[in-house]
Structures
1.
Amino acid sequence: MILFDSFLARAAIAGAGVAIAAAPLGCFVVWRRMAYFSDATAHASILGVALALTFDAPVFAGAMVVALLMALLISTLSGRGMASDTALGVAAHSALAVGLVAVSLLPDVRIDIVAYLFGDILAVGHGDIAIIWGGATIVLGLLSWRWSALLTATLGSDLAHASGVDPRREQLILTLALAIVVAVAIKVVGALLIGALLLIPAASARRFAATPEAMALIASGIGIGSAALGVWISWIFDTPTGPTIVCVAAAAFIVSSVAKRA
Amino acid sequence: MPRLPGQRIVSLISVEGLEIRQGGRQILHDVTLAVRKGEIVTIVGPNGSGKSTLLRAMIGAISPSAGRVVRQEGLRIGYVPQSLPVDRNLPLTVRRFLSLPKPVSDSAAKSALDRAGLPQVARAQLGALSGGQMQRVLLARALLNDPQILILDEPTQGLDQQGSAAFYRQIEAIRSETGCAVLMVSHELHVVMAASDRVICLNGHICCEGHPEQVASAPEYRALFGTGTQGALALYRHEHTHDHHHHHHDHSDEVAE
């Protein structure tokens, strides 16, 4: 299929794959106020990229392992009541800085770090698409399997305990899903803008949804639309693709705010 | 507490020698109590006395540093939290909320809302409810699994006196209808004590317990709440027994709480 072989089509398919997983997960990020949490996790993945390049391992795997470790660390801290906004902010920025320094220390490797900070979606190949859609399928599977329990835990940990739902277990599921999304999104929008792809479609969908399920579906639609439109616009105007996708999502958010008020 | 033979069978949930420490601070120690079938037990105590902590330990949300919580096998608990702050970015109708985590039928949801005294709100958003409506929705959700014990943590916080009196009457009605036990925490001594079979006065440990009148006259209780409360309790009892005659009483003692 000629269309599938064009790099633009591959980019759109990859972007849609990330968006379809990031949007429903992003709803939980919004509902549970985990924006800083997801930023810290995403930023830590740069360190994972550096380590993967050092040990000649797949970048996806490196990013995912380090993102998962970071997410587990801060969710343990917050479980003990220690992770304030400040602590999460410290973790997020430190992880990014350490990652950048680690990349610069790599011997004999000249990599374009910008590609990992902001994504390089036009360079995705068939293998990348398989990994992205594989990861997205796992995330969507996890979320739909645990959906009701996740919602219950989101409403309150005491309520969850009394209903036979262990909120720590649900937090762990979200943590795992987040690490997977970070790993598959790093090539598409980059470590710095993953948070945007989680938050903005969910925030835009809020105004049109009366149930959590509707919000997740609408967010997915907005995310996929932003990815497709962003790829196309970046091609026309020769702008960086990852940031362009986020700009389209941000525009959707503004339109949704105005549309509801009108 | 000495355990009589057979007591284990009727006690739905019990706590033995419970100690809870949080961040190095001892919140509760040497707490032993049991709730039996069908009784209404109220825990009173000043702020920071560990009332909510005790309930959270009993529903399994906190693990004890020492001692244990024993629940009857397969005990169905209906838990009503102090409040449920729902993030305004989470769209959730009352009907959908009742189906978390387990889906319930429309008729079950309707009958639970009816019993909680709030039949008309199934399609409303949780965030749009008043404090009193929210408490009743939480009560309705707690009733869904046909609980053997209802556990309520300051369920009338933010309600005015009339509102909370009505809420406690609803609890009493549910108890006589379903025979479920009720364990609740409250700071509204005079309202809640009149509706209780047994009162436990807590301040880090159990200071005293017994029938409401016994507790209200116990020196440990007076040391915590002052002597005025007993008058308020008596006044409430008086009011309560003459509820239908609408006599006007001198309410000067009511400020005592």
2.
Amino acid sequence: MSERPEVAQRAMNPFPWSGVLALALLLASAPLVAQEDPAPIQRVRDHAASVLWFVELRFKRQDRTREDRSQDGPQDVESRINPYAEYEASLPLSGVLVDSAGVILVPDPQVPRERVESVTVVSPSGERYPGRLWGLVRHHHGLLVSFDPPEGAAPWAACEFVAPGLEGAPGAFDGTVYLASLGLSGDDPSLLVRGERLHATMVLEGGRVLDGFPDGPDISSHRFMTCWLVYDEAARPLGVTLSPRLWRDPDGRSSWLGAGAVLDERVGFDAVDEALGRAERALLDSACEVEVRFRRDAETEEALSRLGPLVGTTPRGSGQPASRVHLYGLSMGEGRLLVIADLDPVHVRAIERLVVKVPGPEGDPVEVPGRFVGLFARFGGFLVEYAPPEGGAPRAGPPAAASPPDGELLLSLALRHRFGGPDVEKGYTRLDGSARGYRDARYRAVLGSLPEGALLVDLDGAWVGVHTREKRYGRPVNPEEVAMGGYRYRSSPSDPDRLFEWDEVWRQVVSPEGFLEPDVVPQSKEESRRRVWFGVEFQAIGPDLATALKVAGPTRDGRLGLLVDAVYAGSPAARLGVQRGDILLAFGEKDSTPVDLVLPPDYAARSYYRWAWRGGRSGSEPRRLWPERKTFLTELLTRMGAGKAVSLRWLSAGEEKGADLVLEQAPPDYSSAPEVEEEATGLTVKDLTYEVRHVLALADTSPGVVVAKVETGSGAEVGGVRPFELVTAVEREPVADSAAFEAAIAARMAAGRRTTELTVVLLGKSRFVDVTLGRVAGE
Amino acid sequence: MRRATAAALILALVPTLSACGLLAPSRPTEGPTVEDRVTVLERALEAEREAVDRLRLQGEEGRAALDFARIIREAKQQVFPVLVFVKPIREEFRGGERQQMQVFGSGVVISEDGYVVTNHHVAEKAVEIRCVLGDSEEVPADVVGLDPDLDIALLRLRLPPERLPVRCAAFGDSDRLEEGQFVMTMGSPLGLTRSISFGIISNTKRYLQDFSEYSLWIQTDAAINPGNSGGPLVDARGEIVGINTLGANFAENVGFSIPSNRVREVVELLREHGRVERAWTGIRLQALRDFMRSIYVRDADRGVLVASVDEGSPAEAAGLVAGDLVLDLAGVPVEGTYLEDLPGVRRRFAALAVGEPVMVRIRRSGEEREVSLVPSRKGKVEGDDFDCIEWNMTVKEINPFSDPEVAYFRQQGAYVLGVLMPGNAALSGVAMGDIILRLGERAVASLEDVQAAYAELDGLPRGRRKVLVEVLRDGIPQLLVLDFNKPRSDYKEAERQ
């Protein structure tokens, strides 16, 4: 999204800007000009005035329904056009007449052709003629507009360029050029001519532009898109440039064009459409639909709602649950698919099933199961493998031989799932210079914006790259985000999409080891709830408590640090000797800045409300008495990952201590422990996990299971067993855990028993409950 | 264990339920009309007549049974004059705020020296009680004794000696009641004093889970509404056979009275001692046949099942365990076959002499044996409150009978009954249900500790009024600083939590 600010400004304000600034600029350039021979610049002025034309585009006003809007192209194209459409204003462009038969070259505004209602050209003397969009320039981002000159001799001439040539070494010259462009001042055209002394414009290496020409002519004074005529010292027109850069490479390519070059490079719109059509077919041939089914539960619900329309959710009313998403994978050969979709690790962990629909020999897709291989760590995409039936889909590609130069016309294709099938959003774009990405990686910048996940293909059908989110993986964990529950591995929404060229992607696809996010694979519900733990219950501190405990300094008035309230036996904390009353200050990963344990300001209040709601006598229903083990700290450590070597700083009795440890997977807790559904009794039970034992003061060896759910109408419900009660014995024989409980009931069922007796315990008080065994499958 | 806040069943009427608010339109109009009831009764009367003929009942009783209009009139004449409209002013602390409210109930004069029986949940926490006698007179009354376990309170009218003896009503024999018998409820439903409703006895031995520790209930379809609490259930002879106590929400014609025999036992003790001393063993019982929950003890046909033994209790000390079958108590067989038997068994245990060993015969794993049980005193069944006014917080003594969940974590001490929101304690992070472990330097093991700490801390100058508090919240200790610099009057329009 390399949006040039001036373009955006124009879109927002279609009305011409005040003339004062233009005048000031003219005056500002005057001293420079004054030192030169005035004659060349006057000649430049006169010449430019005679060949620079305006082109006005008017757009169709559309009354679009909500559904139409949902199929919009890139948002910023719409936002650029809509003000013009709404106010019935014209988008003005200025360009140069390159053919007196009626062809004007203007910068390409990249607006969708179908939205253009009318094209009007305005001559230097002010005559207006209807025009039409005629074609694109292949190697430069220019648009060609044609019109029919009236009968009789045209009083104007096309621009005749001299043979290209600026003295000096290729690509670098030191001299004076004049740049002229046409703008609007008020409603009057104003010609802006600058004489610039250009020094060391570009340093070229291998045909790639490495350094920009940052001091290009200041065209922010022109509130619309324009091009620049380039004149040499002797006021001879050399060419026209469509971007505020001037360069020439050793192969003779330059950033300015002569007329001949322009017309030679013309690509008609029908040719563009044809190329798009071919590219679309090639893409559809090499793409397979990948249906992803997600596990829906309380935790994944929010993450799934963030998937958004870009990954092609099923249209409303289709009857399919929202937990099924249709994506498209590009065949990489041999049963490998690259899916360009920006998924979070949270999404990946919630994947329940992948189904790949491979195009069959007769065209009917064959469904085969897919295996999730990994989530790419650098860009928004993931890898899927499948067993290809009978050859599978043809490989996507071929890749472009070299990185295309700036300005080159490229086709963009974004494959989405719409209306039950694949739908390709087609468009075109250009590359424009390079930019620095994450960790200083250089990448090619794209002019304008592209839909997320768009593929770029050149006119010959060679694949240039994909446009997707660049993940800035490895940012230090932000504790506030963790506490807010919004921490995500992936890059934040502020990290931009960028073009990943095909060879960069291909390398990672062919040998993905080292390029995939570690430990991000689909997990079962229980697995996904496993945590990494330290083994403490903690609370926020706050200024009053910090003062009372005399730790205001090291805890920065209570803002930093977690006060340990309880330590679980056998935990990493217990082993390190952390005790109640200690204050945890920071966890540090190796080679990374330590994470200060700062709870968000309302963490304490939120906990309070949680407790307060649960507090008090709410009636005779048993309550869940043990704490939720998904806490700020366990979330933070889980994000860091089990097996990671970290160091801890903590405060104990006023003394700061440090220790190294390796993060451990937590034992199951009530939320993460597997549920054992025992159908005959109607009870769903869980083992007595560590925090339950701690709170209920039960020894490690004391038998029993916790009732998580009671099936309505079951023997257990009739007998009065309720959730959160414990079952400690079956017919007076203790049950150690949920497996033992299940076995005990199964044994009785096998013996043909119709009822059994359970010992149920609530708050230390037991009772005996007869439970009718029934409801086996099939009844 | 009954609690005054048993929302479904409370009948002490609070003045907000004023008569105009609750009358007619909100009450569903379906239900038997007077004509229907008359028809029913006439038919019943016909049956009675035939029964009487069959039995050849003679005399007063026979004649009375045949004239239901006279029944009502005569009973009314016996009891109406001694029906009391009880108006206590109850003082409660909610969130550190003293709150007084007027509640209404009913009662009946049961002795010539002006003793009045009513429900415990009518008279509890009363700072003042006024009783309206007949139509004509309001007399203050004092609480003589309270028995929360049975929900009975004994009051005494403050009458000058020249007014005595007063008319009183007599207790009947609730053990001889039969289903179908005519009864009347008298009292002040919705504050409408001196109201009579009549119906029959629906069930004489009703067991209500959590409400039948020491007594079963008489269920009647005579109307029992808020305001009837403490009033008499009167039979055809004009004798008090029950004290009306509970009504059922979302039901019609389902009300419950405490059988008069139970009331009588307790009234004597209240009169003597002001309270009822019961023994405690720590045994929880389970009937052999629970038809509500289809729980049946297979291998027993007599005795009662021990469901659980409390930790640290006399039963535990005696070596009893859950699953034991109690056969005899002090040589007398124990009947615990049905739910309805349980209150009787519990009464027997409660009547044991404190500190005196008693032999209990049990069966365990097929073998019979005897254990020696030494009961202890049951003591208080509900802890006292204490109002930490400046902290906008009320604490309560932990009591295993009234607060089993809190007592599970700490058997003794004090916990936060309520905090005013907003208020000093609430804004400092104190939550309802927190068990107080320390206040400043002082460890808290009783309500007195809280009171002492509060008194001491109240002396702190403004600007320094903070105390480090340690609480136990759901089994996990927490530290917080209670800041009470802000005077409580600053929290004007606050909601009660």
3.
Amino acid sequence: MMIIVIGITLCLPSAGLLVIENASQISKNIEHEAEISIFLKKDISKDQIDFIELSLKKNSLVKKIHFEPKLIAWAKLQSKLDVEIGSSVSTNPLPDAFFISLNTLDQIKIEKLINNLDGIDGIDDIIIDGNWIKKLRVILSLGKLSVMFLAILLVIVLLVVIGNTIRLQTLTYKDEIEVSKLIGATNAFIQRPFMYTGMLYGLGGGLITISLLKLSVFGLNKALFKLVSVFGTDITFKGLPDEYYLYILILAMFVGLISSYISANNSIRRLKIYK
Amino acid sequence: MISFKKVCKSYPGSPEILKDIDLEISEGELVFVTGPSGAGKSTLLKLISALEKPSSGSIIFEGQSLSKFKNKDIPILRRRFGMIFQDHKLLYDRNCFENVALPLEINNMSKADTYRRVRAALDKVDLLQKEKIMPITLSGGEQQRLAIARAIVSRPSILIADEPTANLDKEYAEEIMNIFYSFQQVGVTVIISTHEIPVTNINFKRLQLNGGAIQNLIGHVQLP
């Protein structure tokens, strides 16, 4: 029973971590596809366009360059909207534009790049398309903090629950403790079996947590597989890295050990069976 | 071996249980602590076995004051005493063998040595054939013998028994006392608290307590 309680309790923050780790992974993939749109002045010359293109190609932060001439953009827009806008709009309102992908989302580097580009004659406007990623990253870091806070709260809950169980066990073994003390057992000798019990609770609980996490990842991926076949997207839910499972196990055993140590120590003192 | 110097013992809010006790117990002595109920016999034994600390005065064990022992060293000291209680203090969820093995388990003795020693102790009190039996099924006398086996298994230099025959009939009481005498004969110091001294032809010291004070201390008495 205690093992199940520990398993489920630890599963809550671990599941939160699992979700955040997956979301972080997605955001990391998006980072490299972040784009900057550079809109050029309407009266820009061919030479100026070539100069801007050359400047972009020389920049190490720029991964991919795509030039979209205003005529093509205009034609794409019309075909997308499936209407003949030309009859109502006399001139093409769209400018020539460069769409560039960056190697980084490092804010300082991007700001520097934009400042450099801003100084080039012929550029009208620059829009960073990665702002929403910044927001996502802030949300994810907040999420990580929340999960940590939840984990701390739940570890405290576990300390209390395991400690209480061990306290009840010390009462059950009161006679044995008393006799052991009378014939020369040290507190450490008496505490030891309770600490082993606490550690085993932790180990069992940790294994249940890991099993639940692995099962939920397996279940989610099965459900996602159906979505993939419907929407044609390629999404898979990844489990936590192996070392995280080891951390969960160590944490669970540590919590079991500490709570049983504190509880057994307090209980033996409270029993007041000689010094 | 053990000496008391002006030892007093009292608990907060209650009158003094022991007053100005001066006492010398030598190695290999048989000591009977007698007196009516409430005379302080059990308290005296608890002080000897370091289960209680004196309120004043000092207890010297083998030249060392017990008050100088640190709390963490007290259990180690206690292992040198074999203690037998009126209510046996046996563990009823363990069989006879496991009960006797407990002090050796505490001493971290190897399984082979434990097996050998426990069987020897059980043999000494004539309970070897009952090693696998649970203590609850034993008679009062057998339970007390089992408690003695547990006390002697770690080969203590002092045996302390608090009214070991109080709840036993005469036949069993004699049997128990004979076991104690046999240990005294091989050099173990034996201290027994009792209401009345049984008939014996062994030299002993009698410590008569009354109202927490020594009323009479008679050395080397030999009853006919």
4.
Amino acid sequence: MATPTSIRPVIGRTINYTRLFSNANISSLAILPTASSVQSRCPFSTTPERSMRRPRRDGNRLRGLSSIYRSGPRFRMNIDKSEVPQPADFKPEIKVDPNHGLWDFFYDQENLLLKPDEEADHGRGWSVEELRHKSWDDLHRLWWVCVKEQNRIATARKERSRMQLKTGTEETAERLAEVRKTMKAIKHTLTERYYLWEDARKLGEADPEVNLSAIGNAYTPSDYLDPAMYESAPEQVEAGEGTRQQIAGGGAEAEPLTEPSTTQPQGVDPSTMPPKDTDSPQSPARPLG
Amino acid sequence: MRPTQALLKRYRKLPLTTKDINKGFYKGTRTGSMGSHTKYGGYVIDWAKVRTYVVPAGLDEFKLTPFVTKRMPATRGRYEGYALGPKSPELYLDRWKAENGLD
């Protein structure tokens, strides 16, 4: 190794260049001897690693240059490193819609996480008995409110583990447990209501007052007076029309399960208080609920 | 190799995989199918199987929350005169009649 290390690559490059040039001449003649091509792969060097190094396979002049791993420019530059202009500090401002639906994954737009005492500040879950008096629409919406609350809890849990916050995990678990209780009660209520409907339908088929295959009203009270049959008796006609108006007024109601019907006194849930004698609104309501 | 009893006990603490059990075990991802495989390797989506989530309208104005205040104890319903309590079909039918036989 007589040549110093700085000169060695230069020699190798020169040899490589001449070899490439001679190779080009030979390839124009379409004669490629195997031995010379094998030799041309590696520039001559007495150092084993350099001798076995493969040459660049393409003419890419930017090969090995990277702005990511700070390779630096390949050639010596005229200006010092400190004189190189800095890249602009460009940070695009992200437009955020304050009314976006994804904000529902957080409790607040300013405070993305609840404090543990705020987290623990919640009530108990709904009981089945309380949900029995809710309409389908209310239960449906309550279910989705629970789903959103679950999402918020899951987001908080994820965020807390990401920020490696140790506090608040138990409070979150308790909160989630109450939400799960409510959801379980909703499912219980709806299942029970469905089975109840099936049983009541069977019961109604045996009921003489109920005609389920009727086109109009399936329910005809036993003390119902048809106004067409009793035209001669005006008081009875009025009574019959009153009943019919009640039926019509009930038909206009959107939620027959929640809103108490006209025969019911206001403020008392009809489910807990089914009066046996339907067509006598004067009868005192039993205070059951 | 047949693991010993003690090894098996330790082994069962791991989640069950398809390699742990005999042929035919389908573990799945608890997601259910959305269609069927064809014999050519494709997949036909059955739109009746694809989940549809119906979000009710009016969630913004909805007042109820998943929680009830702890100051109010859980209410107990009174179902006097009904043998099965809230599960008695007579209750349902009477209420239906009380609401003029709608629905």
